[in-house]
Write a structure and sequence with these properties.
52% of the residues lie in helices and 11% in strands. The protein has 514 residues and is α/β, with parallel strands linked by helices. Helix 9 crosses helix 10, helix 11 crosses helix 12 and helix 14 packs across helix 15. The two termini are 52 Å apart.
Length: 514
């Protein structure tokens, strides 16, 4: 199968991180690996590793569309959504069979092949059921009734206690001999059930593979079958680890590729929760995955550009970046956003949440006044990162003090902002004048606390070229309005309180922010 066949022409809308080429490469690589694994009659299990909030789900869902366009059978399994019971394999096989039904229906109903496909589907269900849910057995009549899959130590403990009670009440050792025989019978039954379970797993794999080959031969479907496991790092540790173990030991079928999208660091912590803090969780995961791939970390500038250009409200209002020497709208808002996202080390999911909150606040602002986006983006970020600081800004509780103070560590980075270039000598050597983002934020905080009378004094003392003090000149027009009184405040005075209020609104795809 050629690379051209594996790479359908599907546009990834909003692929600001340019990750489609990676999906094309992985498709080609995985199909090649599947071909190699056919010799051993095995499939493969692959991890796609990336931190929380770096766009794994976006990547996976678009990759799924590419594979579907190439006629690969594809299953998308949201592990977090299905984390509602103890039997992980039941939820998984339900998704797999549901996805394969789409292809099974393409087999002509009038042919015997259609009936064969239906019978194979039933065999898949029956063999898996017998492998993972054994029948209930009465272990000791009137005393112990448990599933055969229960730890045998529990049974031994109960029998031992019954022995002691009987010895204390009678000298006859006949009951003890009967219990020993019962225990031998139980152990023999466990051995038989173990072999039976192994046979049912083999039958399950054989039936599912036979169904896949029938679909491939009678439809336009192309193997391998791709099964994506997403959001695994959000699941309960017991569910996440059990699902992985069952994929490896039960679902490892020829011509099937499992792609587990997860955060491996978080997942190895789940392993340690189950097996102990000293357990080598990372090493254990390496035994469950055949290959590991890392999703490259995103470029914040590209992502911020995409967010700004898709904005429904920012494009409708007059904005000021809070940065010097930037005049074009399309550039200045993007750069302000990228600065805040970088300085606070916001992951992609948090960036979306923060920006959604900013849009909500912008909708409530006076459309005739300039929106100072740098300050607004910072305050919206504080709603998710440091609510106490947002509260302090909303209450203007320290108008003459520092904004960050002891919280300076909030800024993971403190980017340098170049405000001016000067020619130093005749050889055109340029000298930069610059400040740090923290100084700009401190300036905005002080301006958010002063009244009109104080703002006028600041304007009179501010040089237009002295950034960031020159930011005050952006308020010159609103200060001169006849409706303004000396005791009124600048328009940014209410930003923090508006962010705080808007943060409690429930949006369509998020939980309550408050």
């Amino acid at each position: 199968m050629t690379t051209e066949q594996l790479t359908p022409v599907v546009n990834w809308v909003d692929d600001a991180l340019d990750r489609k080429p990676l999906a094309d490469y992985l498709t080609t690589s995985i199909c090649a690996q599947i071909k190699t694994q056919r010799r051993a009659k095995r499939g493969i299990t692959i991890s796609l590793d990336a931190p929380w909030g770096t766009g794994k789900t976006f990547f996976v869902k678009n990759w799924v569309k590419d594979l579907e366009a190439a006629n690969h059978p594809v299953i998308y399994f949201d592990a977090w959504e299905n984390d509602i019971g103890d039997e992980a394999s039941i939820a998984l096989i339900a998704s797999v069979l549901s996805g394969l039904d789409f292809w099974k229906k393409k087999i002509a109903k009038g042919k015997s092949l259609g009936s064969k496909a239906t019978k194979l589907r039933r065999r898949v269900i029956s063999s898996l059921r017998q492998a993972i849910i054994p029948a209930t057995t009465i272990i000791i009549k009137g005393a112990i009734k448990k599933f055969i899959g229960t730890e045998i130590d529990d049974v031994l403990s109960t029998i031992s206690e019954n022995k002691k009670e009987q010895k204390s009440s009678t000298c006859n050792d006949q009951p003890s001999k009967e219990m020993d025989k019962l225990l031998d019978d139980l152990f023999e039954l466990k051995l038989e059930l173990h072999e039976t379970k192994k046979n049912h797993i083999k039958e399950f794999r054989s039936s599912l593979y036979e169904l896949l080959k029938l679909i491939e031969n009678e439809t336009e479907a192309k193997l391998p079958l791709f099964i994506f496991i997403d959001e695994l790092d959000r699941c309960r540790p017991s569910y996440a680890v059990k699902l992985l173990e069952e994929i490896k030991h039960i679902f490892g079928i020829e011509d099937v590729a499992y792609i587990v999208s997860t955060n491996l660091s978080q997942l190895q912590n789940s392993v340690r929760v189950l097996y102990g803090t000293d357990f080598d969780g990372r090493g254990y995961l390496r035994r469950l995955f055949d290959r590991e791939y890392a999703l490259p970390l995103p470029d914040s500038n590209n992502f911020s550009r995409m967010i700004i250009r898709n904005s429904s409200f920012i494009n409708k209002c007059q904005t000021y970046s809070g940065l010097p020497n930037i005049n074009e709208y399309s550039e200045h808002t993007e750069k302000s956003w990228a600065l805040i996202a970088c300085a606070l080390n916001l992951d992609l999911r948090t960036q979306k949440q923060v920006f959604s909150l900013a849009e909500e606040v912008i909708e409530t602002l006076n459309s005739r006044k300039t929106v100072h986006v740098l300050w607004l983006f910072f305050l919206c970020s504080m709603f998710y990162i440091e609510k106490d600081l947002l509260e302090s800004c909303a209450e203007h509780s320290n108008p003459t003090g520092s904004l960050l103070g002891s919280r300076s560590s909030l800024l993971t980075k403190n980017p340098k902002i170049i405000s001016k270039h000067q020619i130093k000598n005749a050889y055109e050597e340029r000298e930069e004048e610059s400040t740090n983002l923290s100084n700009v934020l401190e300036t905005y905080y002080s301006l958010s606390c002063i009244d009109i009378e104080g703002a006028i004094r600041n304007i009179n003392n501010a040089n237009r070229n002295d950034y960031p003090r020159s930011i005050i000149w952006k308020f010159h027009e609103e200060i001169g309005q006849p409706t303004q009184r000396p005791t009124d405040h600048l328009s940014i005075y209410d930003y923090a309180s508006l962010v705080r209020s808007a943060g409690f609104v429930v949006t369509s795809d998020e939980q309550p922010r408050g």
